Amino acid sequence: SSGINAEWPLRPGYLLSTVVSYVWSVFETHGYVILIGAVVTYYVYQKLVEYLEQKVQSKRDGVQSNLSPEEQMNRLEAMRRAREKLQAEVDAAAAIEAEKIREREEQQRQDKIEDWERHKKGGGYRSKLSNEPAKKKSLKLDSANPLMGHGTSGGGFRPSRPNLSRGGGGGG
Known about the structure:
Number of strands: 0
Oligomer: single chain
Structural class: mainly alpha
């Protein structure tokens, strides 16, 4: 007999009775602490549920749920006034832009009338392009002439003109 009960696994209910006796001994020694902890936990759980429900409800109702009805009306009136002010600014800017567009269209209409009158008098149409004279475009750059040196305007190589009066100019 080594002190270990060799028959314990064979006895039915041994494990259950061991667990029950252990739990019973814990409740005997720490019963009040466990009971108080359970009551406090239940109380905190109830308060947490109430708090979360209020939080969800206040999000549904908006921030104004904490304000009195008079404060809510004042806040709504202030928001309405601010919206009206912004709308008035937008309307004024739109009216100015519409007036500019009308002026531009009227100017274009007057230009067309002047063009037609000039055309009827034989003056020809006005150029629809910009009033600036168009520069003559060249495919080569001014500095791209290989006989003029490295793009400088001064003393590059210039061959002399043949003097045909001296004779012997070749040709044939």
